[in-house]
Amino acid sequence: PTLILETALPEIESRANDILARLPDDYSIRLDTKTATKAGTFKDELRVTVMTGGKERPYHMLSGGQRFRVDFAMRIALAAVIAARVEATVDTLWLDEPLGPLDREGQEAVADTLSSVSGDFGLIVVVSHVPDFNDRIESKLAVSMEDGLSSAVLS
Fold first, then answer.
1. What are phi and psi of 24, to 5 degrees?
2. Burial of residue 137 (number of CB atoms within 10 Å: 0-12, 13-18, 19+)
3. What is the rounded CA–CA span in Å between residue 24 and residue 39?
4. What pTM did the predictor assign?
5. Which residues face 123 on adjacent strands?
6. Looking at the predicted structure, is the pLDDT value of residue 130 above 80?
7. Which of 155, 151, 154, 135 is nearest to 143 (CA)?
8. Cβ neighbours of 52 (radius 10 Å)
C-alpha cells in the first residue's frame, strides 16, 4: 500500500499546493511516507508538513480556518488524482456544514477558499445553517419544515 501511495503523492502534493497558492497565508505542504525512528531506522507513516514563510509549522498548531484550507486543498487534490486515474472528472463539490466550530475569521477563510476554486467546478453545493455565511452565497436553495412537511425555495 505504501508503494501505491508513494506513486500518487507527488501529484497530490502538487495539486494541493496549486490550490493553496491561490489562498491567503502563503501555505504549502509536503507529503512524506517515511519517518525516522529513534533507533535510526524508518517506519511507514504518512506525514503532512505545512510550510509557511519558508518555515515548517505543525499542523496541530494551525487555526480552524487554516486547517480547513490545508484539508480542503488535500481533499480536492486527492479527488482530482483519483478521477484522473480512472479518466473521470470532478464537476460538483459538496460540502456539508464546513463551518463547524469556526469563528468569524475561519468562516471568512472558508468563503475565500470556495471563491478561489469556484471556477474549477460546474457546481458547488454547501449545506450551512450560518445566516451570515449564507448571505454571501449568490444562489440558494432554502429548505424549511413546517407542520412536518419540507419545502424548498430557490433564490
1. -65, 165
2. middle
3. 39
4. 0.77
5. 92
6. yes
7. 151
8. 14
